[in-house]
Amino acid sequence: MAIGIFERVASASGHALAAGLSAGVPASRRGFSLVGKNALVTGGVRGLGFEVARVLVAKGANVAVAARDASDIRGAVDDLRDTSPNDDARIIGEACDLRDPNAITAMLERVRARLGPVDVLVNNAGTTQVGPLDAMRVEDFEDAMQVHCFAPLRLVFGVWEDMRSRGGGRIANVSSIGGIVPVPHLLPYSVSKFALLGLSQGMHAELARDGIVVSTIAPGPMRTGSPRRASFRGNQEKEYAWFAGSDTLPLLSVTPWRAAKRLVRAIERGETYVVIGLPAKVAALASGVAPGLVARALTIANAALPGWDDFPPRPRVSRVVATSPAWQ
After folding, report:
1. Closest by alpha carbon to 281, among 5, 7, 74, 17?
2. Level-2 CATH architecture, domain 31-304
3. CB environment 204-214: b (16+ within 10 A), e (fewer)
4. Is the pLDDT confidence value at 318 over 50?
């Protein structure tokens, strides 16, 4: 019952605020047709990114999916072409390590050469490190910031002129409920998603003058299979167990397909802030209304998570289950 009340209050408040703000927004920015538009989706070979690409193609867009592994890209492009209801859509894949600024520049040049200027950018690529703070290194935080914050920033700088010269565009930055409420044992992830949240909302305020709408998307847990690609530190087996459980529970997580449809709808409507999933909405509302209570709840939750057991505190090197980051 309490969850239902939270949901109704959040929904009513959100609709009222959106209605009030939309009155001052030019009509050209309220609707955005994807037919014939060129879209770039990072982390577009699996999970949410792949489903977003699939929805964009179905809506009539040409789509470039970017990821690190060339074989994954080939498989994703083939799947998108096989399932596309739009025979005229151009679908391409580009390999790119988003930690490398030069690789980003080169990738954008190839996308322009093959598709044309970018009208829609979806910053979805992600990496996840799971474990207690004692087990984390500064490098884990730097890595997460490179993928979740600096790569989106560089990509926006890279497509900004394309969009401005064409009279506008759409950017969707995929943050997370972990970027609103800091989840214990996911601190590098949460810190970098908090940074992306602030970056994204600030970008919207500054780019709106060029007809560019920036949508900040904050999904809750999704059933994407991300535990298989996450890195685990500390007591790896126990960390994997709790993280995998939160990823698969139907009542706590949403499907990538549902989240993708909501994200694309936000792009079409020019929505600037969307939280996806009932548990995420409740957590976001509670964090704003009762931050002290949420802080205490997170402390209790942390006490229930795995401890170090026989591992020494603050090691210089931690064992890792997955050595390569997860590109969602």
Report:
1. 7
2. 3-Layer(aba) Sandwich (3.40)
3. beebbeebbbb
4. no
pLDDT digits (tens, 9 = 90+) for 265-284: 999 999 999 999 887 888 88
In whole angstroms, give the CA distance from residue 213 to residue 227: 32
Q: What are the residue numbers of the active site?
A: 189
Name which of 218, 239, 219 is nearest 230 in CA terms. Answer: 239
Lowest mean pLDDT among 172-176, 262-266, 287-291: 287-291
242 alpha carbon, distance to own chain's centre? 21
Q: Which residues contact 27 (CB under 8 A, 6 or more apart)?
A: none
Tell me the C-alpha distance between 106 and 213, whole Å.
25
Task: Classify 171 as helix, strand or coil.
Answer: strand
Sheet with 91-95, edge to edge strand ranges: 91-95, 62-67, 38-42, 120-123, 169-174, 212-219, 273-276
> Count of H helices and E strands in the chain?
11, 9
18: closest CA among 215, 259, 198, 272?
272
Q: CA nearest 192: which of 261, 232, 124, 145?
A: 145
**165-196 residues labelled b (16+ CB within 10 A) or e (exposed):** eeebbbbbbbbbbbbbbbbbbbbbbbbbbbbb
**Which residues does 13 contact at the CB level (< 8 Å), separation at least 6?**
none
Give per-residue pLDDT as tens, 44-75: 999 999 999 999 999 999 999 999 988 899 99
CA quadruple 42, 45, 46, 47: dihedral sign: positive
Length of the chain: 328
